[in-house]
Amino acid sequence: MAIELKVPEVGESVTEVFIGSWLKQEGDSVSADEPVVELETDKATMEAPAPVSGKLVKLLKAEGDSATVGEVIAHIEEGAAGAEAPGEGAQAAATPTEGPAPVAAEQQDEPAQEPAAPAPQKDGAGAGRDDLVMPAARRLLEEHGLNAHDVQASGPGGRLLKEDVERHLEEREAADAAAATQAVPTGSPSGAVDEGHRQEETVRMSPLRRTIATRLVGAQQTAALLTTFNEIDMSNVMAMRKEYRDDFEKRYEVRLGFMSFFVKATIDALKQFPEINAEIRENNIVYKNYYDIGVAVSTERGLLVPVIRNAERLSFAEIEGVIADYGRRARDNKLMPDELQGGTFTITNGGVFGSLLSTPIVNPPQSGVLGMHAIQERPVAIDGKVEIRPMMYVALTYDHRTVDGRGAVSFLKRIKDAIEQPARMLLEV
Questions:
Q1: Is 395 helix (H, G, I), strand (E, B) or coil?
Q2: What is the C-alpha separation between 365 and 138, in angstroms, rounded?
Q3: Total structural domains in the chain?
């Protein structure tokens, strides 16, 4: 009995997903709750498991295709035998058995026909057969006018994968470039330009990247954004971190970083200036008495902003623990959609990449975003004397529709005071 594999509910307001990659192919055996496909949304990547144990008999969507929540994307034959192990089909063709495979029967009926998998094809035996060409590979073949017989397959059971076609294209391109280079006369004019290595690559934007682009452009078009700057002497925080780092890690089993200090300082400043923790809804300003702080995390897929819920209730150790967990799961594409929604304020740290200054963009409908930057030793005036101190530039981008310049500058000054005198955060003064 064929069981339908449907796109599951992936989060509030999410109605469309994209097929990221199939973890199983047609003919593969699957176990109940085993991941079958990776689904991409505009917020995160997640895996869809098999509802039953059996064999994956039909893929209805190719990698890169879109699908809606509840749509059928594959069929699973419940309780069916698993797929043949790699090389099993080739052995069956060479060795007679009591129950010959359908392919062997076809070959007996048509002895004059050449076998689909000639012996000279190394590991890619059977690559030219249509049933062994994976959907993503088939699209590439069609786009570039290639024949499956010309491409070396490396997948299980002789399956032709997308990676095989891409490798074939790269090898062909390299061979063409080498031939072009050899064809250039040695006595070419000095002004001639070799354009053999001028290449372009077109890559489809991921759902996440498209969403980032849309939201950032929308923020600049709908909000009145302005950025103000300040600088922070990190000496006291660095000294405190150095003194208690080992004891902190031993007790809480989590690293003591700078982000927890900035989260605490930000919450303190937001309490003093509630308009920066607000949003515009139609003709109203909604002030929020809770503090869900988004912390930007850079991944290979793009910038993700998981949210620390009710951060005002958490200790330094709890904040660091949540940040560490988010960082690990962001890199492994394990964040859930609801963990990326609903923040009231965002903190981003360009300093991890060496940035000294930036103008971060507000994440609508939020009214502000704090930008941290690299710590750099610089000469500063202290009590009439020049001293070398570890300094960090900070930036606050805010929506001028809800936040006045005075409030924005005072907010950033409050964060500066809290970081430079961390005891203030403990005493709440």
A1: strand
A2: 43
A3: 3
166 domain-assigned: yes
Q: Which residues contact 63 (CB under 8 A, 6 or more apart)?
A: 19, 20, 21, 22, 135, 136, 162
* Selected catalytic residue, list 65, 144, 400, 417: 400
Considering the candidates 33, 246, 332, 404, report the single residue annotated as catalytic: 404
Is 383 an annotated catalytic residue? Answer: no
Domain that holds residue 17: 2-78
Residue 302 sits in the same domain as residue 397: yes
The Cα 362–Cα 216 span in angstroms is 8
Looking up tokens 């699209």 gives 139
The answer to whether 293 and 344 are in contact (CB under 8 A) is yes
In angstroms, the Cα distances linking 289 to 100, 154, 274, 313, 336 are: 72, 57, 8, 12, 25
Whether 192 is covered by a domain: the verdict is: no
Kindly give the pairing relationship between strand 385-399 and strand 368-372.
antiparallel
DSSP bridge partners of 279 = 286
Q: Are 356 and 374 in contact (CB under 8 A)?
A: yes
* 3-class secondary-structure state, position 145: coil
Please indicate whether residue 400 is annotated as part of the active site: yes
pLDDT per 10-residue tile (average), the chain, 429 residues: 84 74 89 88 77 90 85 87 44 45 44 44 46 76 81 77 81 71 52 66 74 74 91 96 94 94 97 96 94 90 88 96 93 84 94 92 93 96 95 97 96 96 80
CA–CA separation, 344 and 272 (whole Å): 15
